Amino acid sequence: MGVSRNTKLFVGLIYVSHCMYGNFLALSSVVALGANIICNKIPGLAPKQRTICQSRPDAIVAIGEGAKLGISECQYQFRNKRWNCSNIGSGDSMFGHVHLVGSREAAFTYAISTAGVTYAVTQACSQGNLSNCGCDRSKKEGRFSAQGWKWGGCSADITYGLKLARKFMDAREIEEDERSLMNLHNNRAGRKAVKEKMRTECKCHGVSGSCTMKTCWTTLPSFRKIGEHLRMKYNKAKLVEPIKGRRARRPVFLTLKKSKRPHRKPRRSDIVYLEKSPNYCEYDLTTGTLGTVGRKCNRSSTEIDGCGLMCCGRGYNTHQYTRTWQCNCKFHWCCYVNCSTCSERTEEFTCK
Ligand SMILES: *[C@@H]1O[C@H](CO)[C@@H](O)[C@H](O)[C@H]1NC(C)=O
Ligand SMILES: *[C@@H]1O[C@H](CO)[C@@H](O)[C@H](O)[C@H]1NC(C)=O
Ligand SMILES: *[C@@H]1O[C@H](CO)[C@@H](O)[C@H](O)[C@H]1NC(C)=O
Ligand SMILES: *[C@@H]1O[C@H](CO)[C@@H](O)[C@H](O)[C@H]1NC(C)=O
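That is the input. Now the predicted structure with 2-acetamido-2-deoxy-beta-D-glucopyranose docked in place:
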C-alpha cells in the first residue's frame, strides 16, 4: 500500500517533465499569476510539494527538467537490460497502476532523479534563471594567492541545488514506513553523487601559457558522469532491513542485512533496497513490469542483451530490411555534388 502511494507521487513529478514541460516554459513569464492553477493540475504532488510549487513556480520548471534529465539518463544506463527504466514515466498507463517493489531498480530510479533535480537546479542558478540563487558567493573573485591562484567567474552553487532538491524530493515521503526510509536514503545518495562529482576548472594566465597565475571556479560535470557513478553504486547496492524503535511501531532506520556485525548502517552514498528484483520478463501490473516482448536483442551476444536472456527463452522474431544511403559523394567544380546510392541488408531481432 505504502509502495503504491509512493509510486503515484513519483509519477506526478514525471508528469511535470513529460506533459507539462512545454506549457511550463511558455508560461514561465506569467507563471506567478497562474501558479495556483498549474500546481493544482500536476497530479500526485504531496501537499508540501504543492506548496513549494506555488511559492516557487520558477523553480518547478528546473525541477521538472531535472526529473526528465534523470529519467533519460536512467534509460541510457539500462538500454540493454531487461528493465530499461520505462516502467516509470511512460505515459498514461503509469497513473496509479504501477506498484514498483522496493527493488534495487526502484532505488536507482530515486537516486538518479534526485541527482537530476539537484543538477538542473544548480545549473539554473548558474545561468541566472532562478530568483533565489546565482553563483556561489563563497567563491567570489578576490586577489591572487601566494601560489598565483584565485577564484573567479561563476562557481556553481551546489549548496542551493542540494537544499532545494532535498526539500522537494523528500517532501513526497510522507508514509513513515520502511519504503519511505529507503526512498529518502536513495534520494540522499543521488544528491551526494552530484556533490562528489563537482569539478574545479581553471584558466591560465601569465606569459604565453606558462600558467604562473590561475583563475578557478567549480562546475558541474556532464550528467553522464553522474549516471555512470550511480550505475556503479547500483551494481554494489546494499540489501537493508528496517529496524523499529523500541516503543515505536514504525521503523526508524535501516541496517545492512548481510553483515557480520549486527545493526550496521549502510553508507550515506550507498544505494539501498529492501526486496529482491522481479525478473522483468513478463508484463506484470503488480510489480509494475512491462516485460520484454518487442524488445530488440542481439543474436550473437550471450550477455543480457542477447536474445536468449533478453527474451527469457520465449524466442525472437527476425526482421530483414534494406538500408540505403548516399555514398561516395564527389564535389564537382563548380557547383554540384554527385553521389551514388549504397545499400546494405540488415537484420534486427525482437523478443517474442
Ligand atoms: C535558463 O533559461 C533559458 C532561457 O529561458 C533556457 O534556454 C535555459 O534552458 C534555462 N536553463 C536552465 C538550466 O534551466
Ligand atoms: C523499454 O521497453 C519497453 C518494452 O518492454 C518499450 O515499450 C519501451 O519503448 C522501451 N523504452 C526505451 C526507452 O527504450
Ligand atoms: C552483438 O553482440 C556481439 C557480441 O557481444 C557484439 O560484438 C556486437 O557488437 C553486438 N551487436 C550490436 C548491434 O550491438
Ligand atoms: C554522376 O555519377 C554517375 C555515376 O556515378 C555518372 O553516371 C554521372 O554521369 C555523373 N554525373 C555528372 C554530372 O558527373
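The chain has ten helices and nine strands.
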